[in-house]
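Q: Structure tokens for this one, please.
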Amino acid sequence: MQATLNSQHNAMTRRSIIASLALSLMVNFGLAHWAIAQTTIEAPDALIQRLATDITAAVKADKTLATGDISKVNALVDTKIIPFVDFPRMTASAVGSSWRSATPQQQKRLQEEFKTLLVRTYAGAIKQIKDQVVTVKPLRAAPEDINVIVRSEVSGSGDPIQLDYRVGKKTDANNVTAWKIYDINVLGVWLVQTYRDQFAQEINANGIDGLIKSLVAKNQGGQK
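A: Here is the predicted structure, written as tokens:
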């Protein structure tokens, strides 16, 4: 039984690292492209392909970033990744139905701790970026769709890795519309669902505050 639990934990950890690598590929050139998106909305598949290509090159060229330093990654996430990720939606989906019953303060804490959890994983994932190439597959979506799945494949050393993105069209308070990532599928498993299953167990046992305390403990202890 313990061996099975350990195997499941290792599988989820691997998926989380690969998924975080996918987001880490979008670390640089984010703000520049965000400025472009304010005047024209680039197709979501074109956005993913261009960012992945640019960010892979940027990470390889930045020796400090390549070390996986937490402070370096955290600063880049705040300034570069956040504009392309719908973090409120991602956190709410991971928490599940309990999100609606959480207080505004609890929701704020959950989003902060969930972000920190992913950032800590980004640091380890960035170290693994070497010769990976991301190829985005043709998008199958209607022009009026506001939620689409962008499918891609990461190739390099080892077998190719299936990597899909759930991307939603979102309009902000300034009436600017852009595509934002809110979930990632690695090898057939969606990242948000993986966390939702983990979070649900903690919420059922100890409530929302218990989940927050659990996330704080993991982040302070450096666990993934």
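A few notes: Residues 26-38 have pLDDT under 50 and may be disordered. The CA atoms of residues 38 and 172 lie 11 Å apart.
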